């Protein structure tokens, strides 16, 4: 997966932007529909990305990961040139703490991307999808453990239901679902670090891939000198697909950014389940991965936990709106 910004902490709107006010021409409605379509598009692309990684064979997971780092920076840098958003770089370069956070975020996204690509290309799409299903639960758990956040009772029920699901799945697999846990924890901590940086989606990705660019490029050069690389040996079509890893990374992020400033966070919170749902369906229907009874039970418990979490969030939001309306 391309690691979208954590739902509930979307990329900030561009400087000077503001929510569109309702007008006689229906501008607000059009903006909302445009944002909703972009949100659906972004999560749909993240959900369908398992179809893309197998196309890059015979390139291995590490080579694909390195190309993704290199080409993502190229594409994002071009996007920033078009929109002329470079002012943040001066502030970042003068702040050692921010640079350290960006470096940590780059390391975490490297783990997340690498494990996901490896999982998809090794027949583990279902376990990868599970990682993004349990990610909201892991994010809540990290909030409790690290940020000392207090949970509402139904949130506790959801977290413990999710933990039970992991135990059931571990028994079914005969091992802990380490791919799912690695994806969920790396992405949850990545989200926490991104929250601290305060950068928007494009800016953050540009900074992170800048950190990764030279090591990734150095690896690709070394890999090619050894005769192990596939960029120049498998034809122009294969090279184009490897270069397209930048498009696969950046385009959904741009769509997400367009959605984040136009639709409510509650809507984004619901849309986030589209990606792992698509991945799950691909794993079952397209890749024909096995789903014995214990896995259905484990996934069912995760879905029950997410349903509780969503219901509690919607209920709490409605109560808050009612209190505001009553003054």
Structure described in brief:
It is built from 13 helices and no strands. The chain has 327 residues and is mainly alpha-helical.
Structure annotation, total helices: 13
Q: What's the overall average pLDDT, rounded?
A: 84
Instruction: Give the CA-based shape.
Output: globular
Structural Rg: 20 Å
Secondary-structure element series: HHHHHHHHHHHHH
Helix content: over 70%
Distance between the termini: 43 Å
Give structural notes.
It contains 13 helices and no strands. The protein is mainly α. Helix 1 packs antiparallel against helix 10 (245-260), helix 2 packs across helix 8 (201-225) and helix 6 packs antiparallel against helix 13 (293-325). The longest helix is centred in the C-terminal third of the chain and has 33 residues, at 293-325.
What layout of secondary structure does this protein have?
Layout: H1 27-48, H2 61-83, H3 87-93, H4 96-121, H5 125-147, H6 153-173, H7 178-197, H8 201-225, H9 236-243, H10 245-260, H11 265-271, H12 274-286, H13 293-325
Helix pairs in contact: 1-10, 1-12, 2-4, 2-8, 2-10, 4-7, 4-8, 5-6, 5-7, 5-12, 5-13, 6-13
């Amino acid at each position: 997966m391309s690691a979208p910004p954590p739902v509930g902490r979307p990329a900030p709107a561009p400087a000077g932007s503001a929510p569109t006010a309702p007008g006689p021409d229906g501008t607000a409605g059009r903006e909302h529909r445009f944002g909703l379509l972009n949100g659906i598009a972004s999560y749909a692309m993240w959900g369908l990305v398992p179809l893309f990684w197998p196309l890059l064979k015979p390139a291995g997971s590490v080579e694909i990961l390195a190309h993704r780092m290199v080409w993502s920076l190229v594409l994002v840098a071009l996007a920033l040139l078009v929109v002329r958003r470079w002012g943040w770089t001066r502030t970042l370069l003068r702040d050692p703490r921010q640079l350290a956070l960006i470096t940590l975020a780059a390391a975490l996204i490297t783990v997340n991307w690498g494990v996901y690509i490896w999982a998809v290309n090794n027949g583990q799409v279902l376990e990868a999808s599970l990682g993004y299903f349990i990610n909201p639960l892991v994010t809540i758990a990290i909030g409790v453990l690290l940020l000392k956040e207090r949970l509402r009772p139904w949130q506790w029920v959801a977290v413990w239901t999710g933990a039970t699901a992991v135990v059931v799945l571990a028994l079914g697999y005969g091992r802990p679902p380490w791919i799912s846990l690695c994806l969920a924890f790396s992405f949850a901590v990545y989200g926490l670090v991104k929250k601290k940086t305060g950068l928007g989606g494009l800016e953050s990705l540009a900074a992170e891939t800048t950190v990764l660019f030279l090591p990734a490029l150095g690896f690709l050069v070394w890999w090619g000198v050894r005769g192990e690389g596939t960029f120049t040996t498998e034809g122009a079509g294969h090279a184009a697909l490897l270069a397209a890893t930048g498009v696969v990374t950046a385009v959904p992020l741009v769509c997400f950014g367009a959605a984040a400033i136009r639709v409510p966070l509650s809507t984004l919170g619901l849309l986030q389940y589209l990606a792992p749902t698509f991945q799950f369906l691909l794993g079952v229907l397209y890749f024909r991965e096995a789903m014995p009874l214990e896995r259905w039970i484990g996934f069912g418990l995760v879905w029950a936990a997410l349903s509780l979490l969503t219901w509690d969030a919607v209920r709490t939001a409605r109560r808050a709106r009612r209190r505001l309306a009553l003054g």
